[in-house]
Amino acid sequence: MTEPLFDTIAIIGPGLIGSSIMRAARAQGAVRTIVTSARSAETRGRVVELGIADKVVESNAEAVEGADLVIVCVPVGVCGAVAAEIAPRLKPGAIVSDAGSVKGSIVRDMGPHLPDTVHFVPAHPVAGTEHSGPDAGFAELFENRWCILTPPEGTDPQAVEKLAGFWRLFGANVETMTPDHHDLVLAVTSHLPHLIAYTIVGTADELETVTRSEVLKFSAGGFRDFTRIAASDPTMWRDIFLANKDAVLEMLGRFNEDVAALTKAIRRGDGDALFEQFTRTRAIRRGIIEAGQDTPDADFGRPHGHED
Ligand code: NAP
After folding, report:
1. Which of 105, 231, 261, 279 has a CA positioned 20 to 30 A from the CA of residue 93?
2. Three-state DSSP class for 122?
3. Ligand 1, atom 33: nearest CA belongs to which residue?
């Protein structure tokens, strides 16, 4: 076990991501003391029962006092309010980060509240499942997954490197990019797929000619795979679409054009166009497997679900 990278960390919001960070930090001996705060008494009580933090406190401001690293792990839409709440109690020299799935809005919403005495290094661990809450977390969630850091211009490189080292301890690969680029990349790799899943599951649910029990019974034909993604947390995903509006609309526009092209090919009986498109997409799947981001097994290779 290595020397702890941080003395005290504060995790605001011990849900799926926050509790996974706490578990991984413990497992890797990355920190000496873990403090956490949750909005509801129920979650706080559950974290105490699980024994995954050294200290569970009621207020976010109290949690960050004396912490060397603060990670805000709440839905994107409330990160700004949490930043305002914790700002006066942050320890000078502390690193303040988050786990939000959108980065432009985080920089805009959190940045202005934070004092110059702290290092603000926003982060997005591209790892997750469709489950929520402290029971859903696990220490291995970030293994062989990417964590994207989007430090604002002028951020101390040493602070960025220290946070990168923290994520690497959990088996994550770290990449740095601008918030806007992050939001474009994730719009197509994560946000659009979720929107499609939410749509298709809703479409099937509203059919009159095909019954709901038939949809469930024959779901292995492809539908089932979408239902897992469409089971993701409604609050989190509402916030993501509102916060990443422009990039999602840009990708959605392109997607709609491509759907129109495929629609035309089907209507015209243009088998060559369909075959060409399906051959191209099959190669992308192979690339994902070669990149170690999934296994070639039938159904889901990973027991723990998808990336957000
Ligand atoms: P989660 O399991 O639902 O946990 C969210 C936590 O935030 C809970 O502890 C909750 O407290 C707290 N919270 C919710 N609303 C709050 C509010 N208004 N004020 C203060 N605290 C509040 O969510 P998660 O999946 O861990 O997601 C957390 C963040 O990570 C989000 O920004 C999300 O975009 C990002 N992320 C998620 C995934 C994923 O796959 N889920 C992947 C990567 C990044 P209570 O339990 O007391 O309500």
Report:
1. 105
2. coil
3. 100
Alpha-carbon dihedral of residues 55, 171, 291, 164, nearest 10 degrees? 80
Burial class (CB in 10 A: 0-12, 13-18, 19+), 35: buried
Query: What separation in Å is there between the alpha carbon of 209 and the centre of ligand 1?
Result: 38
Cβ atoms of 139 and 164 within 8 Å: the answer is: no
Ligand 1 center to residue 44 CA distance, Å? 13
CB atoms within 10 A of CB 271: 10
Residue 143 · residue 164 · CB < 8 Å: no
Tokens describing residue 81: 């309010």
Q: Which of 74, 228, 238 to mutate to test the pocket of ligand 1 (most atoms within 8 A of CB)?
A: 74
Query: How many angstroms separate the CA atoms of 199 and 216, rounded?
Result: 16
**How far does residue 131's CA lie from ligand 1's centre (Å)?**
11
pTM flag (> 0.85): yes
Q: What is the CA radius of gyration of the chain?
A: 21
pLDDT in tens, the chain (308 residues): 568 999 999 999 999 999 999 999 999 999 999 999 999 999 999 999 999 999 999 999 999 999 999 999 999 999 999 999 999 999 999 999 999 999 999 999 999 999 999 999 999 999 999 999 999 999 999 999 999 999 999 999 999 999 999 999 999 999 999 999 999 999 999 999 999 999 999 998 888 888 888 988 888 888 998 999 999 999 999 999 999 999 999 999 999 999 999 999 999 999 999 999 999 999 999 999 998 888 887 654 444 445 56
